[in-house]
Amino acid sequence: MQVFIHHIYEYEKGIRNLILHTISEDLLDFVEKRLQLKKIDYKIYKIKNGRYNIFFGDSSCIDVIKKINKSNLSDYTPEEDFILGIMLGYDRKKQCERYINFKNKENIKVS
């Protein structure tokens, strides 16, 4: 929970606009109540093994996540993965390299 609380701190201080946090089902109620109390927008997706991915942060970022609307990150297209990485604040150069690698693998499968 310390990491979750720290993520809220980073959002409130403007360090991050979007956070992705994974939790177990037993923490779901606490996390939702805390985000609602802080009036932070969020989107929850149930994933494997009773765990949940919680995206939270700026409402425009959450709107993008809702438009993509995929609970499994491995289902993201290379373009969606790139957008998510940039929104989460990952290194831009590394995201560009990751995108190129995904697209190269995609081209190999098509050939």
Automatic annotation (TrEMBL):
The family database entries (InterPro entries) matched by this protein are listed as: DUF2023, PG1857-like_sf
Q: Which organism is it from?
A: Candidatus Cetobacterium colombiensis
Entry's Pfam families? DUF2023 (PF09633)
Q: Where is the DUF2023 domain?
A: 2-101
Listed name of the protein = DUF2023 family protein
